[in-house]
Amino acid sequence: EKPYKCGDCGKGFNWNSHLERHRRIHTGEKPYACPECGKSFSWSSHLDRHRRTHAAAGEPPCRCADCGRCPPPRATESSKTPEKPLECNECGKGFTKNAALAKHRRVHVGEKPYKCGECGKGFGLNAALLQHQRSHAAGKPYQCGDCGKSFAWSSHLDRHRRIHMGEKPYRCGDCGKSFSQSSHLERHQRVH
What confidence tier does 76 reach under pLDDT thresholds 50, 70, 90? Predict the structure, then answer.
């Protein structure tokens, strides 16, 4: 039984960190941006694979215009085409729509225009804001029948229920001590 369940699709995971990474499929979050061209990825491994395409093409590892040691992108390196007539002035990436170009520019400036009305936290993508908003009280539909505590995600309720049930599925291979959450086991293992 995989204890960490995705509230959107029900897929289970052994580790909470794997669930959080998986959730990016649903939220559209792409926190890993290529410094060469600005393209963003949901997973660091995809960014690493993408960056190898720049290296294979013989591009320098940095193409910023203001670090003092890198040349600005040359016109021949531009991805602007008749099909993609709009060009990012930071990295040369081409786009078909102004809205897509504006969204892309957030990569360069770190802009987070989607603000949570509850706590003020900012997000680059509306989908990420919507996911975050479920963490506030009104967006916590999963309630524990034993103590009444509410959760935004069914997987978090499942994890919490282990407290009441005394379930401790995460066992230390070194000393045999068991834990209800994988993060507690990981913290414990750092002492060995």
Answer: very low
Assign 90 to helix, strand or coil: coil
pLDDT tens-digit series, residues 104-136: 777 677 778 888 887 888 887 777 777 777 777
Neighbouring-strand partners of residue 93:
none
* CA dist list (Å): 38 to 44, 49, 64, 68, 93: 14, 14, 11, 19, 8
User: Residue 115: what are its φ and ψ, rounded to 5°?
Assistant: -105, 140
Task: Show the domains of the chain with their CATH numbers.
Answer: 4-26+137-189 (3.30.160.60), 30-116 (no CATH)
Does residue 18 sit in helix, strand or coil?
helix
Beta bridge partners of 12: 5
